[in-house]
UniProtKB/TrEMBL annotation:
Annotated GO CC locations: plasma membrane
Protein purpose: Na(+)/H(+) antiporter that extrudes sodium in exchange for external protons.
Keyword rRNA-binding annotated: no
Keyword Oxidoreductase on entry: no
Similarity remark: Belongs to the NhaA Na(+)/H(+) (TC 2.A.33) antiporter family.
Catalytic reactions on record: Na(+)(in) + 2 H(+)(out) = Na(+)(out) + 2 H(+)(in)
Protein name, as recorded: Na(+)/H(+) antiporter NhaA
Keywords: Antiport, Cell membrane, Ion transport, Membrane, Sodium, Sodium transport, Transmembrane, Transmembrane helix, Transport
Positions of the UniProt region annotated as Disordered: 416-439
Pfam family, one: Na_H_antiport_1
Main location: membrane
Source organism: Micromonospora echinaurantiaca
GO terms, biological process: regulation of pH
Length: 439
């Protein structure tokens, strides 16, 4: 195989400089969100295991909202159904951005992370069902999700010198993982479907789509339409967070030709993502973590009791073992059938470290646990303990592997940051470093 062929079929090919810069900016924002997410979860765990646990439960169960619209919901439900809609709106914008204007529009580049994401869903689900049994099969999707904020926070701490291609691979995998999670929630966790509200949700959704297609940014027009779509989706029985994704999919990614086309600057999707990602990462997800992670463990005895539940054991095994096997196995199969090799300087230990990071499931895993077994139930408490335990073990194992690999990659990273022509683009991204005008 020639060098040219190997570059075309590389498993972790280097992306364009523009895409690498954009991914790096997202990583920096997500790592801050991951830290805030961790703070919210720790506060919930400390408070719920303190002498003031009843006050925590009273706050979580406090009901607010208009009863006439069936929106007299608890604060915990508002966090799961309302605030997470913002999270899924941002995820939807990122999904569309990747598939329309990002590297996922190229099937060759998309093949590996898409296959890895599907493998990372199928294997954990299978292991969960085998361990938990058919009686608890409704929770099969709990260990299938990857929490990108937590995963990127760990990566930022232990993998500073990992190649950008690996970081991009993780983010792309998580983007596809989010899409799969959205479909799972919409299809498998919709119970009592009401057709009229569902059809009614299409009206404000279509009006919202027409306005954004005309590049309307007026919040006083768009926000009421988005809220109406969310309320009607909530009334229909479909999980209200799906409304956030549908709204995001209507937002144009590329600027119109009349506005100067792609070269004229960022499109409306990127504008909305820039505005709403800080709200999602800094408010929505940490508040959800605060209201969802609070579980009274009951000391070592309570922890042992929770983890001996077959459901909890299935979740832990799914996250810690199933996720890496699924992601790494799917990646290996792609390399086997396409005869692709890792990029020069990378090896399968790098892929193992990233696949272990995929086992950090939190936000969506907790949400699916509530949908599967009911918020506040005994089994839901076991789910929370299992998700936290599995995510922690995955983070620790990934840290060991990635820290060792980061030391190896440090010298390569420093060499690739050289910019001899001082054009703001590292020479490694220039096809011909001696001719910086050709890129």
């Amino acid at each position: 195989m020639t060098d040219a062929t190997r570059r075309r079929t590389s498993l972790f090919a280097r992306r364009s400089w523009a895409e690498t810069s954009r991914i790096s900016e997202i990583l920096r924002r997500e790592t801050v969100g991951g830290a805030l997410l961790l703070v919210g979860a720790l506060l919930a765990l400390i408070w719920s295991n303190s002498p003031w646990t009843e006050q925590y439960q009273a706050l979580r169960d406090l009901r607010l909202g208009p009863a006439a619209l069936h929106l007299d919901l608890s604060l915990g439900t508002w966090a799961a159904d309302g605030l997470l809609a913002i999270f899924f709106f941002v995820a939807g914008l990122e999904l569309k951005r990747e598939f329309v204007a990002g590297d996922l529009r190229d099937p060759r580049r998309a093949a590996v992370p898409v296959a890895a994401a599907f493998g990372g869903v199928l294997v954990p689900a299978l292991l969960y069902v085998l361990i938990a049994g058919a009686g608890a099969g409704r929770g099969w999707a709990i260990p299938t999700a990857t929490d990108i904020a937590f995963a990127l926070a760990v990566l930022a701490v232990v993998g500073r010198f990992l190649p950008p291609a690996l970081r991009t691979f993780l983010l792309t995998l998580a983007v596809v993982d989010d899409l799969i999670a959205i479909v799972i929630i919409a299809v498998f966790y919709t119970t009592d479907l009401s057709i009229l509200p569902l059809l009614g949700a299409l009206v404000p959704l279509v009006v919202f789509a027409l306005l954004v297609q005309r590049r309307v940014r007026s919040w006083w027009l768009l926000l009421p339409l988005a809220a109406a779509t969310w309320v009607l989706m909530h009334e229909s029985g479909v999980h209200a967070t799906v409304a956030g994704v549908l709204l995001a999919f209507t937002v144009p990614v590329i600027r119109s030709e009349a506005a100067g086309g792609p070269a004229a600057g960022r499109g409306l999707a990127e504008h909305f993502e820039h505005r709403f990602r800080p709200i999602s990462a800094g408010v929505a997800v940490p508040v959800f973590a605060f209201f969802s992670a609070g579980v009274a463990v009951g000391g070592l005895t309570g922890l042992t009791t929770a983890l001996t539940d077959r459901v909890a054991l299935g979740i832990v095994v799914g996250l810690v073992i199933g996720k890496p096997i699924g992601i790494l196995g799917a990646t290996w199969l792609v390399s086997r059938f396409t005869r692709a090799d890792p990029e020069e300087g990378l090896n399968w230990l790098d892929a193992l470290g990233l696949s272990l990071l995929g086992g950090i499931g939190f936000t969506v895993s907790l949400l699916v646990g509530e949908l599967a077994f009911g918020a506040g139930s005994e089994r839901d408490d076991h789910v929370k303990v299992a998700v936290l335990t599995g995510s922690l073990l995955s983070a620790l194992l990934a840290s060991v592997v990635l820290r060792a690999r980061s030391r190896v990659h440090r010298q390569v990273c420093e060499a690739e940051s050289v910019d001899r022509d001082h054009d703001g683009v590292p020479d490694v991204y220039d096809p011909d470093p001696d001719r910086p005008d050709i890129r």
